[in-house]
């Protein structure tokens, strides 16, 4: 029988309970595996689980506590790893039939650090092929569902991870974010998702270590758990030349007090068509921050859809660089939507690619004065509250008759400007009961600042009490 109270207990609280001998690692991990067994047939959020190995490690963790041994900051905590991230001796399929039987001989740096901290990997989570989309479905693993409404996607590309956390399978999961792939599913599933500053967590899993869109980040139900995850995984490593040095000094969550902060608010960057329930919830969150002593002012960013076109051009070149060689012999085994992106990327020339960076520069010139005046920027995470199954990214990205941009999310801007950390937190629900999210975007490398603002909101709004109906 699954103990749902235990399933929805944050990692920080589980650690306290273990230290006080109120609960054991064996109970925690067994409960996580039971919860996965209950919900995964419906959600399809895990493609692999490791029950025997996880329980062996849980018993070892229990013995270590009993002996008084020094333990790591995630000792005995069950976690999930995305099926894009290499795990030594365990299949890593990238959501693709082409990699169905790939078994890496190494762990990614982030996996190495999580395991060294005492976390116990209970499984790997589903991703669309090559983590290419804002929804999670693949030719290999099928459709993953949102625990808040099974007719909807949990988002993507870290959709399996977000569904696993939102449904109480694990308190935290690893995701990666190249255009919003942590923040989008966090918003769609009503949880917390952090894209740290570029280089904060080493990212060395691609053939190129010079891919400026690429970030690892946590999905969790609490900001404190996100801070814990970041604290364990951040810091330089020579396997990633662009990883930031020095590491941030702990603790990363130093305050929940926002009094005196000046915050900018942009509902649409000046050009998006945003769902009215998302806007209502955004303004409600701004009012909460005002009640906590922050100053919040609406600003006009003045961007246009040229930003999205520049991102998409860069993204298609990015994915074609790493996977375009598969078109020659394996086109028929690829997701047709992936084929479309690969073909578009291969059609661009080097000048096309570099011209996108000129648009990024103009975008930073629009944001820079805001970050000079304000401590952070508040904006929606997504422009719509969810993707119904069958909808894809290609149903978005066009101009409406009213002159507004029909976009899916407002996240890719801060992959292009990756030095700015972005935290998505739950902002409320639509009239239909779907979760919505708000981004807190920080000044360059101010990961600590966005965690502070998110924690203040969490303390006031108590979204951790909310659970999906599954």
Q: How would you describe what is shown here?
A:
The protein is α/β, with parallel strands linked by helices. It folds into two domains: 24-233, Alpha-Beta Complex (Amidase signature (AS) enzymes); 264-439, Amidase signature (AS) enzymes. The protein is built from 15 helices and 15 strands. The chain has helices spanning 4-7, 11-19, 25-43, 51-67, 109-116, 159-166, 183-189, 223-233, 276-291, 306-323, 327-330, 336-347, 350-373, 413-416, 447-461, and strands at residues 46-49, 78-82, 120-125, 137-138, 142-143, 172-177, 192-195, 215-220, 262-265, 295-298, 376-380, 398-399, 405-406, 422-429, 435-442. It has an eleven-stranded mixed beta sheet with strand order 1-3-2-6-8-7-14-15-11-9-10, with helices on both faces. The chain has a two-stranded antiparallel sheet with strand order 4-5. The chain has a two-stranded antiparallel sheet with strand order 12-13. α8 (223-233) packs antiparallel against α15 and α10 packs across α12. The radius of gyration is 21 Å and the shape is globular.
- The average pLDDT score comes to 98
Find the count of extended strands (DSSP E, 2+ residues): 15
- Tell me the CATH architecture of the largest domain: Alpha-Beta Complex
Number of helices: 15
Q: Kindly identify the CATH topology of the largest domain.
A: Amidase signature (AS) enzymes
- Poorly predicted regions: none
Q: Which strand order spans the largest sheet, edge to edge or round the barrel?
A: 1-3-2-6-8-7-14-15-11-9-10
User: How many angstroms separate the termini?
Assistant: 15 Å
Structurally, how many domains make up the residues? 2
Percent of residues in beta strands?
Answer: 5-15%
| CATH superfamily descriptor of the largest domain | Amidase signature (AS) domain
Major sheet details:
11 strands, mixed
Question: Which structural class matches the secondary elements?
Answer: alpha/beta
N to C succession of SSEs: HHHEHEHEEEHEHEEHEHEHHHHEEEHEEH
Radius of gyration: 21 Å
Oligomer: single chain
Question: Which shape, going by the Cα principal axes?
Answer: globular
> CATH top level of the largest domain?
Alpha Beta
The helical percent reads 25-40%
């Amino acid at each position: 029988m699954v103990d749902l109270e235990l399933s929805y207990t944050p990692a920080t609280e589980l650690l306290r309970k273990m230290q006080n001998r109120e609960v054991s690692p064996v109970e925690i991990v067994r409960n996580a595996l039971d919860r996965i067994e209950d919900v995964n047939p419906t959600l399809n959020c895990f493609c692999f689980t490791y029950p025997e190995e996880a329980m062996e490690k849980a018993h070892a963790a229990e013995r270590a506590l009993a002996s008084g041994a020094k333990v790591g900051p995630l000792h005995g905590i069950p976690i999930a790893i995305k099926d894009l991230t290499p795990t030594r001796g365990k299949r890593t399929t990238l959501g693709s039939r082409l990699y169905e039987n790939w078994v890496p001989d190494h762990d990614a740096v982030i996996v190495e650090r999580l395991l060294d901290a005492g976390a116990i990997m209970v499984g790997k989570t589903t991703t669309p092929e090559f983590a290419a989309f804002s929804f999670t479905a693949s030719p290999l693993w099928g459709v993953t569902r949102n625990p808040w409404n099974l007719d909807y996607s949990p988002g993507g590309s870290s959709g399996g991870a977000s569904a696993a956390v939102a449904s109480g399978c694990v308190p935290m999961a690893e995701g990666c974010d190249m255009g919003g792939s942590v923040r989008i599913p966090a918003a769609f599933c009503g949880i917390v998702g952090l894209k740290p500053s570029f280089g904060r967590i080493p990212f060395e899993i691609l053939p190129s270590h010079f891919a400026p869109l690429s970030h690892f980040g946590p999905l969790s139900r609490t900001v404190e758990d996100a801070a814990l995850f970041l604290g364990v995984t951040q810091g330089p490593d020579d396997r990633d030349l662009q990883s930031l040095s020095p590491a941030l000094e702990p603790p990363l969550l130093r305050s929940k007090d926002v009094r005196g902060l000046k915050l900018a608010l942009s509902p649409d960057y000046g050009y998006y068509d945003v769902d009215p329930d998302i806007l209502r919830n955004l303004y409600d969150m701004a009012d909460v921050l005002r009640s906590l002593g922050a100053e919040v002012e609406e600003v006009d960013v003045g961007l246009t859809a040229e930003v999205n076109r520049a991102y998409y051009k860069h993204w298609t070149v990015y994915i074609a660089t790493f996977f375009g060689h598969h078109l020659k012999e394996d086109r028929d085994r690829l997701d047709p939507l992936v084929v479309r992106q690969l073909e578009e990327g291969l059609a661009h020339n080097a000048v096309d690619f570099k011209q996108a960076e000129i648009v990024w520069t103009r975008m930073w010139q629009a944001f820079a004065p805001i970050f000079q005046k304000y401590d952070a920027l508040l904006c929606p995470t997504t422009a719509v509250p969810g993707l119904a199954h069958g909808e894809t990214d290609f149903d978005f990205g066009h101009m409406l008759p009213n002159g507004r941009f029909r976009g899916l999310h407002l996240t890719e801007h801060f992959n292009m400007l990756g030095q700015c950390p972005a935290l998505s937190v739950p902002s409320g629900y639509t009239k239909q009961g779907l979760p919505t999210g708000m981004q807190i975007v920080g000044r360059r490398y101010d990961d600590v600042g966005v965690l502070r603002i998110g924690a203040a909101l969490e303390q006031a709004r108590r979204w951790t009490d909310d659970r999906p109906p599954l």
